[in-house]
Design goal:
single chain; alpha/beta; Rossmann fold; three-stranded antiparallel sheet; 13% strand
Length: 367
Amino acid sequence: MTPRALDDAERQGWLRLARTESVGPVTFTHLIGRFGTATRALAALPDLARRGGRAGPLNMPSVEAITAELAAGELIGARLIAACEPDFPYPLAVLDAPPPILWVLGDAAHLQRKMVAVVGARSASAAGRQFARTLAAGLGEAGYAVVSGMARGIDAAAHQGALPFGTIAVLAGGVDDVYPPDNAALYDALKVQGCIVSERAIGHGARAADFPRRNRIISGLSLGVVVVEAELKSGSLITARLAGEQGREVFAVPGSPLDPRSRGANDLIRQGATLVEDAEDVLRVLDAQPTVRAPEPTAFHHQSPGDDPETDAVRDAVEAALSPTPTSLDEIARAAGAPISVVLACLAELSVAGRAELLAGGLAARA
């Protein structure tokens, strides 16, 4: 996306498009690239949904609802940053499909620093929590902003250790959703000594489906992710997997094989994650890495709403090539016998209609 500041009308359009049903980050990025502005994309959406085979009306938030969300953010002192704006954090901007918008509460300047994530078990051991505090303090002292999810256990300990140096909490709910409630004092400190980030609406309470998206932002902001304690099936391992997919470094702190909370981290080391015994182990790797840069600007290709004979001719073949298993756009294009650009346009229509899902990494699946 071409870096640019948004005026009030286009900012409202970005938020409304991001809040529209069936418009995920990949579809959002495609629509902005195709139509040039959120305002034009919103005008085209009903027609795209119809062409994609949607039976009922598309659920789009009203202008009044978006105005109310912007007012609620202003009331608590939060700031909305769009993915195309210069202040949007670079590491997120280079993702295949960045979150379209972020609400930020606190000092947004921390998002321009070098960042590293420290995550782990909610039911952490006392030793694990102490290690996370010490590790985060060492990373903060070395100039890194520590990112975590403000959960109980390792997350909270990492924030506490990094508070004197500035730390970033990514929430699954809105930036005003203090969860868990027993971290209220930490939340208040983060607003002053760091910042709180979320892509969810002001007033949104965290749900189970929100946490994977929260984890993608944690890893996406960071040059690397350190897992301190984690069971074999845990959100921390999802964050580590996402970090690997995003080209970030993965670190893990070893633990006793007798403790289930160490099995996830030990398994990461077995798979090639860097073993961590202190902050120097992390700094040695990250300090040698080049700084993540913003993506090169790409030109917009404005297209007026209306029927497109090319997509009409191959849409059924594109949909037939989809399966519940994510499939590459190249494979879909070969099966449909159509250029990638036309296939992507068809998939955007099917996605808005709720019949397909555009995924990061050049993949798509049947919804």
